[in-house]
Design goal:
Mean pLDDT: 88
Strand content: 5-15%
Number of strands: 6
Largest sheet: 4 strands, parallel
Radius of gyration: 22 Å
Number of helices: 7
Helix content: 25-40%
Strand order of the largest sheet: 4-3-5-6
Shape: globular
Order of helices and strands: HHHEEEHEHEHEH
Distance between the termini: 76 Å
Length: 203
């Protein structure tokens, strides 16, 4: 007797959902079944929203953040940004926490990744050339490297710092790293403690 399984349309939906980051086989199955149980109206609305986002959301050709043809890029098109400061991040999603903090109002540049030899990602695979072109055409005075604090992030930051060394007028900085709010010394690793000591400030 043949084993009973989901109909092919449901199996196809599960297969697509499994490709999403953070969605495993079981989660994909639960989401697919939930959508089917909600009926055609919910499934159609979900499908329409996904299609609309795919058709209308673009990558900003300047900073790499999300933009639309109708409204453009909320960062690059704003006249209230500090155009002398450029914050370099790995992914577009890294911009949102910085914006929500309210502590930075300058411009951004997304690399779309970081140097990772194990993943065959080199400097030529990142948006580094676009960054240097922006620096040459703009009036920037500071570049902030807001990259990950792991090995790949450090390597990417050091590579960019070497490239930017040819711009003596630029101030190159990194995000300060240290003990998180509410955290104790016993839970901090050696690198975090070293950065906390290096970035200490007066009272």
């Amino acid at each position: 007797m043949a084993q009973v399984d989901y109909p092919e349309p449901v199996k196809a939906l599960i297969g697509q959902l499994k490709q999403l980051p953070g969605i495993g086989p079981k989660s994909a199955e639960r989401i697919a079944v939930w959508l089917m149980q909600q009926g055609n109206e919910v499934a159609s609305t979900f499908s329409d929203v996904v299609r609309f986002a795919g058709d209308s959301v673009l990558e900003c050709g300047v900073c790499g953040f999300f933009s639309t043809e109708q409204h453009g890029c909320a960062i690059c098109d704003s006249i209230q940004r500090d155009t002398a400061s450029l914050c370099v991040v790995e992914q577009p999603t890294d911009i949102l926490p910085l914006e929500r903090s309210g502590a930075y109002r300058g411009l951004y540049h997304t690399l779309r990744g970081r140097i990772s030899p194990l993943d065959n990602i080199g400097p030529e695979d990142l948006r580094i050339r676009e960054m240097t072109e922006r620096l040459q055409s703009g009036e920037f005075t500071e570049v902030i490297l807001a990259l990950s604090s792991d090995v790949e992030g450090e390597a990417t930051g050091n590579y960019i710092a070497e490239i930017l060394a040819v711009y003596p007028e630029l101030k190159i900085t990194r995000l300060a790293q240290g003990i998180p709010a509410g955290g104790g010394l016993e839970s901090a690793d050696e690198l975090t403690l070293m950065r906390a000591l290096q970035g200490r400030v007066g009272l």
